[in-house]
Amino acid sequence: xxxxxxxxxxxxxxxxxxxxxxxxxxxxxxxxxxxxxxxxxxxxxxxxxxxxxxxxxxxxxxxxxxxxxxxxxxxxxxxxxxxxxxxxxxxxxxxxxxxxxxxxxxxxxxxxxxxxxxxxxxxxxxxxxxxxxxxxxxxxxxxxxxxxxxxxxxxxxxxxxxxxxxxxxxxxxxxxxxxxxxxxxxxxxxxxxxxxxxxxxxxxxxxxxxxxxxxxxxxxxxxxxxxxxxxxxxxxxxxxxxxxxxxxxxxxxxxx
Length: 256
Prior knowledge:
Elements: E1 4-9, H1 19-24, E2 29-34, H2 39-51, E3 55-59, H3 70-83, E4 89-94, H4 97-102, H5 108-124, E5 128-131, H6 135-146, E6 152-155, H7 161-170, E7 173-176, H8 184-192, E8 198-200, H9 222-233, H10 237-251
Parallel strand pairs: 1-2, 2-3, 3-4, 4-5, 5-6, 6-7, 7-8
Helix pairs in contact: 8-9, 9-10
């Protein structure tokens, strides 16, 4: 039986009327990890998870935005602390790589916030879902090693070969989006990364190109990702489904 888990989606960013279809359209979809961007986003993901048991909420603050005030951050951490038992992970958290390409930013407050999330994730006993690409990934690896973080998931990762080797050696997980079907660099990364530490995601509602051009991003797109990983790894499609499902279920402590 084909079973898939969307390891990274922003369900709260879809229109409410589409939630049911996204969650229920594909019978092979067993769970969705819905990540948060702000306090309001956390609260909306909490609401969605109470409507659909297969939706597992992660709470955090997306780094590709300007930072809120210290009072607002205190409110966010207090809310997560109060609701941490129901969350599957801390996320999405990380560093503002793309924002820093557009604006002149001080990285220090973003580093302080990320380190606070790392410290709290250990206190809460939850894995981390990370937005950390290119040079930022090296900085994040430094923090993860500093705090001996056991479980880290780098979503839609892109980075240098030396960073990839470091992440592999540390047993960090990565996930690939549907762009693996048409992007050679992502195909090369998936070929190189151990299958035991791979997951699939949509990052929906982020739109994709290639065969997905002008389509709403939905979890069923991951089937083409799985088939592409099977081709790259020279493993049967059935085995690849099994590996990816078990990897994700194990990482997120989901019952199988």
